[in-house]
Specification:
alpha/beta; TIM Barrel; 5-stranded antiparallel sheet; 19 strands
């Protein structure tokens, strides 16, 4: 009698970088888990399916910790929903992404409603999803808010130090108490950090002059407004011995100052995220006829600041890459192109983030390594948000979330070559080296040979044993 297959899938002869060495490996998968990793010189075990990854990079599944799907912004909604956005994510090698609940201002009933509604939307995703619990200043004590986050199997609470005009801002008093409430738990406080008072003051100056053109954005949301707020919340995290994750850092000066003031904590309980558009684009794009297509908050910075941000990335002072993916169409942007108060802010990016950083590494001969990219795109976000080692690594027993990258594929970026549900890209016409060849979630192909495989992946949650460990935590 012939024995049945030992494995469900073997990824054959892929390249994996560890330290200064490149290994050629077979990754053996069964029941959605990585069961074994063996030297490619060894004979293949029995398996149901073989996928040839020769001359391709195998890496832990990529994680985007910061996207906005189906997000209402003024009169508009971001044009990717969880179906189209997750398909674009799969083409970008993303096996897990994090979105947000609507911003909670009320009590626990509202929180429950917002969480369940958003979780229902995630069921359309073709890759793993998780949610950040987004709040302003809810009618919930910070200690109770932390328990609610744990109850709903979330690992993070998102707050804003700005946007008072739209009711999304959390004041420093509540925020400081929230940091204290998260001490000793696995909850990370994620912060959109800008100084609201200065921004609103600057805004009034230009409104009084009836000058609302988009090139004023960097003069209103200055690099100082970011730097001051980031340093403030970092001080709160250090004093309360809690963890802070700073979203979309746009300025190299911010990173430089955080390192000067809080260097020993950086990468330990202070984590800095940046986005590809801050590494590739500068504020000159806000001065032309197409300025409206490059509007995001925080805004693009001057060239010297962009170059400094890249330098800080190469020096290991930036911890993660999040896209802040929030796409709109040309028409939606153009409708408010002369009014910075009304235009919907956000850029498309989830499909291109890894390829852009890979090209920064390869084509500019930078000190960035492929192993650094593993950390930025997978290992560190998995650790910060409580998934490691189930995700963020290729290790026996880990989830079989795997990205396979073809470094020899050259292609040109354009709306017709992408899968995000928008009709433009800020990187139109750029040539890239390398493209995602396969995206595997829980041992199942979502993308295979650069083509979508139709399947739905259930919304993901941290490992159950971790929740049991946390369920009784009250020391805040």
């Amino acid at each position: 009698m012939t024995a049945g297959p030992k494995y469900d899938l073997i990824i054959q002869n892929g390249s994996y970088v560890y330290g200064s060495r490149t290994f050629h490996i077979h990754v053996c998968i069964k029941d959605g888990k990585i069961m074994d990793i063996i030297n490619a010189r060894m004979p293949l075990p029995r398996t149901e399916e073989i996928y040839d990854a020769s001359r391709k990079e195998i890496m832990p599944g990529l994680i985007d910790p910061h996207v906005h799907l189906n997000l209402r912004v003024g009169e508009h909604r971001s044009v990717d929903d969880f179906r189209t956005g997750s398909i674009a994510a799969a083409y970008g090698g993303i096996t897990t992404f994090f979105d947000f609940t609507d911003v909670i201002n009320g009590g626990e009933h509202q929180l429950e409603e917002f969480v369940q509604r958003r979780k229902k939307e995630t069921e359309e995703s073709v890759v793993n999803t998780q949610l950040h619990l987004a709040v302003a200043e809810p009618d919930i004590r910070p200690t109770d808010l932390v328990h609610q986050a744990i109850k709903h199997k979330m690992r993070s609470i998102k707050v804003f130090t700005t946007y008072s005009s739209s009711g999304r801002m959390t004041n420093d008093g509540y925020l400081y108490e929230l940091f204290k409430a998260t001490k000793g738990t696995k909850i990370t406080v994620m912060v959109h950090a800008e100084n609201d008072g200065i921004i609103e003051f600057n805004k009034r100056q230009y409104i009084d002059e009836e000058n609302l053109r988009l090139n004023k954005l960097p003069m209103i949301n200055t690099d100082f407004t970011e730097k001051e707020a980031v340093l403030r919340v970092c001080q709160m995290a250090v004093d309360t011995k809690s963890t802070v994750y700073i979203a979309h850092v746009s300025s190299g000066r911010t990173v430089e100052r955080v390192n000067e003031c809080f260097g020993p904590y950086l990468g330990k309980n202070i984590f800095l995220e940046t986005a590809p558009h801050y590494l590739y684009l500068n504020d000159t794009f806000l001065k032309g006829d197409n300025a409206h297509l490059y509007t995001c908050l925080p805004p693009l910075r001057e060239e010297s600041d962009r170059l400094l941000l890249r330098e800080q990335l190469l020096n290991g002072l930036v911890n993660t890459i999040g896209t802040d993916h929030c796409p709109f169409t040309r028409e939606m942007k153009e409708a408010h192109k002369d009014n910075l108060l009304e235009i919907p802010y956000g850029l498309p990016g989830i499909e291109l983030s890894f390829s852009l950083l890979y090209n920064l590494m390869m084509l500019e001969q930078s000190s960035l390594t492929i192993e650094d990219l593993y950390s930025l795109f997978s290992t560190t976000p998995a650790k910060v948000f409580g998934y490691y080692p189930m995700k963020g690594t290729l290790f026996p027993g880990s989830d079989a979330d795997i990205t396979i990258y073809d470094p020899e594929h050259y292609w040109k970026i354009g709306p017709d070559t992408l899968h995000m549900n928008t009709d433009y890209t800020p990187y139109d016409g750029m040539m890239l080296r390398g493209k995602v060849d396969a995206t595997i979630c829980g041992g199942r192909f979502v993308l295979k040979n650069k083509e979508l495989v139709e399947s739905l992946v259930p919304s993901d949650e941290p490992a159950e044993e971790i929740h049991e460990e946390e369920s009784g935590e009250t020391d805040a």
